[in-house]
Amino acid sequence: MDPILxxxxxxxxxxxxxxxxxxxxxxxxxxVLGVVGESGSGKSTLIxxxxxxxxxxxxxxxxxxxxxxxxxxxxxxxxxxxxxxxxMMMIFQNPQASLVPIRTVEKQIYEAISEGSRKRAGxxxxxxxxxxxxxxxxxIGLKGGEQILKSYPFQLSGGMNQxxxxxxxxxxxxxxxxADEPTSALDVTVQSQVLDELVKLKSLSxxxxxxxxxxxxxxxxxxxxxxxxxQGRLVEYGSKxxxxxxxxxxxxxxxxxxxxxxxxx
Length: 265
Ligand SMILES: Nc1ncnc2c1ncn2[C@@H]1O[C@H](COP(=O)(O)OP(=O)(O)OP(=O)(O)O)[C@@H](O)[C@H]1O
Known about the structure:
The chain has helices at residues 43-51, 77-83, 105-121, 126-139, 145-150, 158-172, 188-205, 216-222, 240-245, 250-264; strands at residues 5-14, 17-27, 32-37, 58-67, 70-71, 88-91, 176-180, 208-212, 225-230, 233-239. It is α/β, with parallel strands linked by helices. It has a 6-stranded mixed β-sheet, sandwiched between helices. It has a 4-stranded antiparallel β-sheet with strand order 2-1-4-5, covered by helices on one side. Helix 3 (105-121) crosses helix 4, helix 3 packs parallel to helix 6 (158-172) and helix 4 (126-139) packs across helix 6. Bound molecules: adenosine-5'-triphosphate. Adenosine-5'-triphosphate binds next to helix 1. Residues 14, 19, 37, 39-45, 55, 57 line the site of adenosine-5'-triphosphate (ATP).
């Protein structure tokens, strides 16, 4: 089997300042990579760079990104955008960033799903999409689904919007999903439901997932591989057990100790 994602020696700069340096990683279909690291270590920049979502003033200055064997940096913007929302998706740390404020949740779910399935299924049945959305909401503990469908994002809490985005990802079943702190706005029981659904997405649809989190517990629970970022570099990268049980770097040991200490408290 070929890797679905292969990143080689990636460097990303904001102006002249490198935020990601010499990052290489590889992901097979259905594999989950957990990326941890302190605030400002470059985690969001890395996944935004891979997705092609860097803002003005930042750019990839070195390296290569292959998705399903295609070199993403060689693709035209239009081709690259086509991959996003169909085969590659992202759940943002701030869900407001990916929801349109002036459209109801129902409308944007329909649009997201029909955009993604244009190639696959032709015309979509609205009633069916609605049913699937309600089903996805229920699985991740989003109660009052009918009401949520009628709402605009600003009428919902941050955690609710985050789960709407997760439901869209579950319905789309992308081949590669990037999740930037996908459960940070959720309380612990709901977090657990969401993580279970991500695991199902991986095992039922073969979705490969890159999950960025401050929570090593999440990595322990759902990841196959783990990476630790420090000052823009992957200072640790390997199987989850290798990284968590036998950290090589002092920094990872400190990070793990701090988490274990908090958990004990
Ligand atoms: N738009 C920007 N312009 C300039 N520098 C930026 C910008 N966004 C991020 N940076 C810098 O790039 C580095 C990496 O930031 P990044 O947001 O990727 O870190 P992170 O690990 O995702 O942090 P957090 O966990 O707080 O989200 C930091 O030094 C940050 O100050």
